[in-house]
Amino acid sequence: MPTQxxxxxxxxxxxxxxxxxxxxxxxxRLVLSARRESExxxxxERCREAGLEADQVLVLPLDxxxxxxxxxxxxxxxxxxxxIDLLVNNAGVSQRSLCKDTDMSVYQKLxxxxxxxxxxxxxxxxxxxxxxxxGHLAVTASVAGKVGVPHRTGYCAAKHAVMGFFDxxxxxxxxxxxHVSTITPGFxxxxxxxxxxxxxxxxxxxxxxxxxxxxxxxxxxEVIFKGLQAKKREIPVGKGKEMAALWIKRISPNALFxxxxxxxxxx
Length: 267
Ligand code: NAI
What we know:
This protein is α/β, with parallel strands linked by helices. The protein is 50% helix and 13% strand. Residues 9-10, 12-16, 34-35, 63-65, 90-94, 113, 117, 140, 142, 185, 187-188, 190-192, 195, 211, 214 line the site of 1,4-dihydronicotinamide adenine dinucleotide. Keywords: Oxidoreductase.
């Protein structure tokens, strides 16, 4: 297979970083994006250690909420590598706060980063893929994109929205040679809860038990890597009881609502 150009957002840590390193072992051309250039450089170094040549990794800092800057970023990738085979919209931020304690500015930020940012970058890349008649668009959604849980009203809303967007987009573009994959991780051990927004918009700053007991991030990256290679439409990944919630929600939504209520009382 010819070397693929793969663009990963949220590549400065966690799932995005692990995925970048996994793809590096396979000889890709990689574009690494997030806001912090120094962290992206650190990840780029790991990618080179994993087997990429220096000219196979492009560090491209960006903020997914800066919609106007995104078309310039797309052009930079095209000028550097000539094409984009796979875009993994992985940048994201979570939430840890009850609805009653959450500022509207927090809801706005969750929507801006987790929904509008993914849509904006996807729309900036889509014309290129349509013109070539080939390409692959992916998004790291979440189990929270299918199931509502406490302390994450805004995050669940955002992840449900992004699932809807990419499912609908698939229905529009699949016949034009473009694959769309939605990734639904359960609890994965990353800094997601430390970086999550508290009700006042500050970082939550703590690791919660669910994340601490979650799947190892490299194991998660392996599952996502294989799912993307196979061009799966949905890629669930996780190891805990939260993965069962995906099935229970389909079979008996009421049973799931009761389980979540009981768990919330216990915690
Ligand atoms: P993380 O906090 O380590 O990584 C988030 C990444 O997104 C970082 O690189 C961060 O710099 C980047 N980012 C945040 N805001 C950005 C912005 N405005 N512009 C550009 N980049 C931005 O957490 P993790 O776990 O690696 O999260 C990656 C994705 O996986 C997120 O979309 C998250 O919602 C999703 N996810 C994570 C789960 C978990 O248990 N860790 C479970 C389900 C989904």
